[in-house]
Amino acid sequence: MLDDLDRALIHALHIDGRAPFTQLATVLSVSPQTVSRRYERLRDQAALRVVGLPDPHLTGHEQWLLRLRADSETALNLAHALVRRQDTSWVYLTGGGTEIVAVLETPLGMAHGHSLLLHELPPSMGLTAVSAHHLLHTYRGWRTPWRMSANALTARQQRALSGQRLTEHDAVSSVSSVSSAECDGHVQLTPADHALLDALRRDGRTAVADLAVGTGWSPATVTRRLERLRACGAIFFDIEIDPALLGGNVKALLWMAVAPAHLDEAATALAHHDELAFVAHTTGPTNLVAQALCRDTKALYRYLTHGLGAVKAIRAMETAPVLRILKAVGTIASPGLPHRPA
């Protein structure tokens, strides 16, 4: 079970995933040694991980939500094949265990990127149905965490962490070698940037010294470049953790159909529901998708009938229970990967 300090540390890492233990200790009013021990315990026992992620819109990519159906004998093998890909995240096994839902990231303008992925999968996977939904706008998720995982700090504590980030951004902006125009639109990533992002996808708190080895830059260059990418919004940090420890024992994907005239209003309202960790507008007949996390099946029933039932704009809905989460947003780490928390 998580106590108040665990929850506060998780919330703090949502605000700044790379904040030094000394800074986290000051905000949480404990010693740095206590923060370090709690962080390592949460890593070991709660599957906590900080991951660095590129913003697809700023780095020239787009996202697709794929629904793949396969024979019951091959569905799990298909899911694992998707897990091993570098361009996938959120690989779920849903429904009766024969449907896989995954997010695929493709270069901007590669409209048939999801089709190319399917051609790369072995024919023995036994696909029986495929649908692809372009993620057009995210109302909750990615940069905006689930409300139940980020509700432990006071407003003053949150300001202390976010205010420090702004101070750091101001400090590096004048010495960065990157043009300020880069923050106004598409950010051109170099091969070294990709190496940096690959390392941060595995562990967002990888020490600067290790990042320098992976990129070929000096530690000072790594620090400047990372801060610049964060200041531009081209990279941000997210948290992976077992949602059951935060009250999300029952997980379900909700595929909803909403009239276009009411879509933005309905999605904005849903983004404030405590039960939803993800809300996004997609293409397709179900143009609004959400992920629900509830304490138990009774709580899910109450939410579906009363919480969502009160949103009159929802014309139709399909509920797909999530049986297994095989991959979240970060890269699956390789054995023996060096790790030294920043």
TrEMBL record:
Residues 2-62 form the HTH asnC-type domain. SUPFAM superfamilies: Dimeric alpha+beta barrel, Winged helix' DNA-binding domain. InterPro entries: AsnC-type_HTH_dom (IPR000485), Dimeric_a/b-barrel (IPR011008), Tscrpt_reg_AsnC-like (IPR019888), Tscrpt_reg_AsnC/Lrp_C (IPR019887), WH-like_DNA-bd_sf (IPR036388), WH_DNA-bd_sf (IPR036390). It holds the Pfam family HTH_AsnC-type. Gene3D superfamilies: 3.30.70.920, Winged helix-like DNA-binding domain superfamily/Winged helix DNA-binding domain. Keywords: DNA-binding, Transcription, Transcription regulation. It comes from the Bacteria. This is AsnC family transcriptional regulator.
